[in-house]
């Protein structure tokens, strides 16, 4: 158990809908990262928050947004969903702001989104 | 676009065989190279984080080396066991992002 909690584990929805994925980082970790893993693709970096502020951005679509709350949990909002958004969405956390520069990331078990 | 490439894409070996995978990355602006082990239906777990050229790390039967000048890292598994079956991911830390390769899927047959 990595200590990172993601909900829901599975989600099935229709095209055009909006969903929210939630992540609680490990106790004491200030950074939260969101990754997307689509079929036959690697983990694609979406966005990172550190202590409530956006820190780094990857190839995140404009239809997607995220935030980190004062209690450090984070939410990833996906709107106007398309079939191609079906993927496994991972959250990870680290203590430091530049997570990965010296230390590992701790991953949750992912939220599997299916868009029909 | 930063490219982290892993080879082979998949590997099937017999129990007891030793095996190795490669991770290639751009050598400029190097900060750190990670290896993660990802079992089906679980979350990726860190094996090693390496930051210095020539780094060698070991955990049980698994070890890794790093060459930052030529931009590659090797992961070795000695005496593979069925429980080593997983996807092995490498990731490069660069400009505030941890960029993952597509992984090497290892299956070890008893």
Structure description:
The complex is a heterodimer of chains A (about 120) and B (about 110). Chain A is mostly beta strands. Chain A has strands at about 5, 10-15, 20-25, 30-35, 45-50, 55, 65-70, 75-80, 85-95, 105, 110-115. Chain A contains no helices and eleven strands. With about 110 residues, chain B is mainly beta. In chain B, the strands form two sheets. In chain B, strands 2, 4, 5, 9, 10 and 11 form a six-stranded mixed beta sheet that branches. A five-stranded antiparallel beta sheet of chain B has the order 1-3-8-7-6, with no helix packed on it. The interface of A and B includes residues 40 and 98 of A.
Strand content of chain A: over 45%
- The number of distinct β-strands of chain A equals 11
Q: Give me the strand/helix succession of chain A.
A: EEEEEEEEEEE
Helix-strand pattern of chain B: EEEEEEEEEEE
Percent of residues of chain B in beta strands?
over 45%
Quick check: average pLDDT of chain A? 92
Total E-strand runs of chain B: 11
The rounded Rg of chain A comes to: 13 Å
Report how far the terminal alpha carbons of chain A are from each other.
Answer: 31 Å
Shape category of chain B: globular
Average per-residue pLDDT of chain B, rounded, comes to 93
Distance between the termini of chain B: 40 Å
Helical percentage of chain B: under 10%
The level of helicity of chain A is under 10%
Name the biggest interface.
A-B, 28 and 24 residues
Number of helices of chain B: 0
């Amino acid at each position: 158990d990595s200590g990172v909690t993601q909900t829901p584990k599975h989600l099935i929805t229709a095209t055009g809908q909006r969903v929210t994925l939630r992540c609680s980082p490990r106790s004491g970790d200030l950074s939260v990262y969101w990754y997307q893993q689509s079929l036959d693709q690697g983990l694609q970096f979406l966005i990172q928050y550190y202590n409530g502020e956006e820190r780094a951005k990857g190839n995140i679509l404009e239809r997607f947004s995220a935030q980190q709350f004062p209690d450090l949990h984070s939410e990833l909002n996906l709107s106007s969903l398309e079939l191609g958004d079906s993927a496994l969405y991972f959250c990870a956390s680290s203590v430091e702001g530049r997570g990965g520069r010296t230390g590992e990331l701790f991953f949750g078990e992912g939220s599997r989104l299916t868009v029909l | 676009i930063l490219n982290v490439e892993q080879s082979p894409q998949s590997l099937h070996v017999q129990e007891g065989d030793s095996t190795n995978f490669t991770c290639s990355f751009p050598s400029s602006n190097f900060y750190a190279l990670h290896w993660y082990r990802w079992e089906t239906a679980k979350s990726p777990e860190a094996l090693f984080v390496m930051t210095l050229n020539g780094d060698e790390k070991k955990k049980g039967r698994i070890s890794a080396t790093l060459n930052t000048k030529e931009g590659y890292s090797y992961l070795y598994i000695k005496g593979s066991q069925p429980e080593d079956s997983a996807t092995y991911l490498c990731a490069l830390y660069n400009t505030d992002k941890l960029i993952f390769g597509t992984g090497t899927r290892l299956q070890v047959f008893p």
